[in-house]
Amino acid sequence: xxxxxxxxxxxxxxxxxxxxxxxxxxxxxxxxxxxxxxxxxxxxxxxxxxxxxxxxxxxxxxxxxxxxxxxxxxxxxxxxxxxxxxxxxxxxxxxxxxxxxxxxxxxxxxxxxxxxxxxxxxxxxxxxxxxxxxxxxxxxxxxxxxxxxxxxxxxxxxxxxxxxxxxxxxxxxxxxxxxxxxxxxxxxxxxxxxxxxxxxxxxxxxxxxxxxxxxxxxxxxxxxxxxxxxxxxxxxxxxxxxxxxxxxxxxxxxxxxxxxxxxxxxxxxxxxxxxxxxxxxxxxxxxxxxxxxxxxxxxxxxxxxxxxxxxxxxxxxxxxxxxxxxxxxxxxxxxxxxxxxxxxxxxxxxxxxxxxxxxxxxxxxxxxxxxxxxxxxxxxxxxxxxxxxxxxxxxxxxxxxxxxxxxxxxxxxxxxxxxxxxxxxxxxxxxxxxxxxxxxxxxxxx
Length: 446
Description:
Blueprint: H1 15-46, H2 48-76, H3 78-103, H4 107-130, H5 141-192, H6 210-223, H7 225-239, H8 244-256, H9 260-283, H10 290-308, H11 314-342, H12 348-361, H13 366-377, H14 379-397
Helix pairs in contact: 1-2, 1-4, 1-5, 2-3, 2-4, 2-6, 2-12, 3-4, 3-5, 4-12, 5-9, 5-11, 7-11, 7-12, 7-14, 8-9, 8-13, 8-14, 9-11, 10-11, 10-14, 13-14
């Protein structure tokens, strides 16, 4: 008997996905505005050294608690954790804005704000990374990741300018208030987002401890080594682009005497290039030969990021920056789509927390490294090092097996000791179809 599967609405036409995209864009723009306001307020109040200490105070709990945030997302549901953490961010930021407006900027308040925000971020980021597969079908994940990349590049291009204008008009209190309003907008949209039920999820968080869930996540990656390699590819491929490259661009333009205007053009070109690749991958129906595309994108990224440090002038640097944004954006889209397609939904929070730790949690450690390398050997050497890291990611991507899905960690029935029937899922694409039955949906990434 042939059973027709429901058709999946294209992600860029799905109102539910678009609500998530709007919430994600507002959240990222709010993040950019918040960090700009926090840095500006700390610098104006106590100087650059204290500003660095305030930022570190927020980065430490975010890095330390990120893996625990993935466990929380899987135990209580990604949507619930995202909505709850966004609500806390709204309250905290708006409270800080009101306090700053009434009493002026206080250094102790900035430290408290940074620590609380970093802690909540450790919950928010794994959960928001686990949401896309619960919104749409596997064949739409490349489109969703393309839309996500477009959102990130847009927010990174618009956020600093908007934040600077708000800072000029309303000071730190106004910027914190604007950031809080963006988080409120994100919260409203997230509340309206609906997710699919998670298969084989425990009936409640009381069945296992958080430690057992954490170890189960590590065991899941151990049992699926190709999935672990994909996590490594994402960590290596994106680590340099979660802030350190921007710092390197600043050091490069200062070293060459190109000026702040050139820096702005290079970073804008990088964002536009990434947005273009995100838009292209949103428009295409599917990505054929995804592993080959990922390898080529990472290889091109490695060449281009190394070339940035060798360009002779600001004009070529802008052109290389645009190409670099496009190549790194394509690698980001394809790698994250592959990871989310191959990961069981009930483990997505824990797997997402690992990639978030590599790309966001640990990347601040590279900021001082960029400065030390540039001071000792020049900014070009730092970019060459980033190129070597991306080249390593490209090499590891060749070992990612083109098989879907990965081996599931089957729950065991208490009455038989055998895997639960609901846990034994056929490969996506219809490998268990009856002879002659057509596949009504595009096949997922390979």
